[in-house]
Amino acid sequence: MIKQFPDNFLWGGATAANQFEGAYNEDGKGLSIQDILPKGILAPLTDEPTDDNMKLIGIDFYHRYKEDIKLFAEMGFKVFRLSIAWSRIFPKGDELEPNEAGLAFYDRVFDECHKYGIEPLVTISHYETPLHLAKAYDGWINRKMIVFFERYVRTIFTRYKDKVKYWLTFNEINSIIHAPYISGGIWTPKEALEEKELYQAIHHELVASALATKIGHEIMPEAKIGCMIIAIPVYPLTCHPDDAFKAFETERENMLFADVHVRGKYPAYAKRMFAEKGIQIDWDESDEEILKNTVDFISFSYYMSTCDTLDQSKKNGKGNIMGGVKNPYLDASEWGWQIDPKGLRLIMNKLYDRYEKPLFIVENGLGACDELIVDAQGNKTVIDDYRIDYLKQHLVQVHEAIHDGVQVMGYTSWGCIDLVSASTAELKKRYGYIFVDRYDDGSGTLERYKKKSFYWYKKVIETNGKALYEDAE
Question: Residue 473 has what pLDDT?
Answer without folding.
Answer: 47
